[in-house]
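Record format v2
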Amino acid sequence: MAKAPKMTDIAKAAGVSPMTVSRAFKSDASVGKKTREKILKIAEELGYVFDSTASNLRSQKSGFVAVTIPSLNNANFADTIRGLTEAMRDKGLQVLLGYTDYSIENEERLIEQLLRRRPEAIVVTGGRHTERGKRLLENAGIPVVETWDLPEDPVGHTVGFSNADAMGQMVEHLHAAGARSLAFIGGDDNGDTRGADRRRGFVDKARALKLEYRLVSLGKPPVSMREGALAMAEILASDPRPDAVLCVSDLAAFGALTECQRRGISVPDDIMLAGFGAFDLSEITVPSLTTVDAHAYDIGEKTGALLADRLRGELSDDASPEIVRISPTLKVSRSTAKR
Amino acid sequence: MAKAPKMTDIAKAAGVSPMTVSRAFKSDASVGKKTREKILKIAEELGYVFDSTASNLRSQKSGFVAVTIPSLNNANFADTIRGLTEAMRDKGLQVLLGYTDYSIENEERLIEQLLRRRPEAIVVTGGRHTERGKRLLENAGIPVVETWDLPEDPVGHTVGFSNADAMGQMVEHLHAAGARSLAFIGGDDNGDTRGADRRRGFVDKARALKLEYRLVSLGKPPVSMREGALAMAEILASDPRPDAVLCVSDLAAFGALTECQRRGISVPDDIMLAGFGAFDLSEITVPSLTTVDAHAYDIGEKTGALLADRLRGELSDDASPEIVRISPTLKVSRSTAKR
DNA sequence: ATAGTTACGGTTACCGATACCAATACCTGA
DNA sequence: TCAGGTATTGGTATCGGTAACCGTAACTAT
């Protein structure tokens, strides 16, 4: 096979200048309709594939939006990515994704690696970064969006919510449902700042309401189903048993629920149980789980819309940074039904 | 803020030629150790970030490996991506990810879009493509890997397994466990070729073993928890009831399991239940689910290793295409325990 | 001391599309 | 028919690195 044709080859074959071919491949450029069709037809016949590396260099536009998430393996973040992708797709913006495994040191490396690709904007999950990571973001010269959080000192734009407040709401709900002693299942502090914020929200509200509470922390984030089960085993062995157990995520809550099933403990009659994140399984479990819907898809979509406006729309990014507050929804369900 | 420094700025500041700076940023190039350190230090001070768009164009190496998966929101594919990413990370290869939503028409568009970025290789999930999609892959001039399948007529390399055979194994297991009539829960045919293959394997083996069987198909792929529950409701309403229900994935199986719980039907005593994919929840449910572990992470890791060898190692890609067979493991668990 | 070898840094010409500027074709109305 | 305008097309320099090649210094062996 000969080597891949380039624009000049198409131009020659079509009897036009390379410049005209270039324009034919841009949707908004002014080229005669017939000319464009002819060029695209010839390009298809010759198997030409547009080379965006060259385009990127000359136009100083990569069409990339870099995104870091803690983990691929999490339906919440996956939903955010979907929302983001879909909000930007028809503006010719493409997501360049990397994951940090819940480590801000990894995040720092990842940010640097991603910036080398010259993204037009960068979206990060969470508002805590290494010092150098933050500096990289600040100096990148492109719009920055922090998501899934409301940082005290944001780098740029923000699309998120207070994890602490959301968990506080959950505590209030359980209080109203009659619980007077609570337990919280979460991971160690390191890494998952959203998890840590949720725990803080739990503690603060439990104190404010003068509820008894205890914390069960197990392992590194992400706290998963197995850890949830282990933590619940520990809680069920304790005396007195708390009235309700709150979990850092639905996955942990589901693990906890199965442990109850294994021991013949009834949820919510013997103990109430709540999760966080509105994962699919929360609606399906028996009983279904009370949880917090953080509107993960919306976070992505709103972030995408914000960036599309600034990169391809009217707005310039010189203006003041925007803060888009997402209001998590408390989804009350069977697992915390009042006795 | 002044505009971003480039290599020549670093060169000037360090008193060396741009070429030396360029080499200092490549790990294997020959530059004096002290020179390199000085250059990197100055670069850091000036806030220089390497521009790979320019590098890509001149060196004709993007460092990208393009990957298409049906859905982000699936732990199996996420595991494959993790394996792939990790196998290639230290070779300087980065995953450029896109999802198809289980549509080969979307896949075609996505392939074209990804090829514009000049990836050094492309990895696709599944062995069925549109005609044009296949042609794009064939003419891309880069290594192609099809995964999660064993196509009859592969485009390039293959890292996968036979979904039909794996499901056949499951039928054999249930036969051995005493089941004589079976049901299969899956989606419609369109799109999810792996799902369709699993169903085919189910039917073929059930016939070979002279078992009674029926198929329950619900909705577009991916078949999820809710559909699993609906399908199980339909099955439980039928008379006579099958001895065992096999599902296209663990998620559907979990939905089915919860429906049994809701109705007070015991698994496996009243009906046996099996899933596919070895998702985390299969180990945690009560009872735990018999499933097939397709070794999703391995698929990614082996694909990554194969590509790293060809792109950064000894092997050239001129040689014959490789077929890496993955052997799925049947994980027998409580949900199909013999009565 | 000299040739031969290695290690390092420098010079130049690109990679392939597009910004920028200019030119030409085409159309409208007087 | 022609001026004046719009729509479409063309020529050229250039984006920021690096391949390919070259020159020189340092070191080794004889």
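Chain A touches chain B through 54 residues (CB under 8 Å).
The CA atoms of residues 10 and 77 of chain A lie 42 Å apart.
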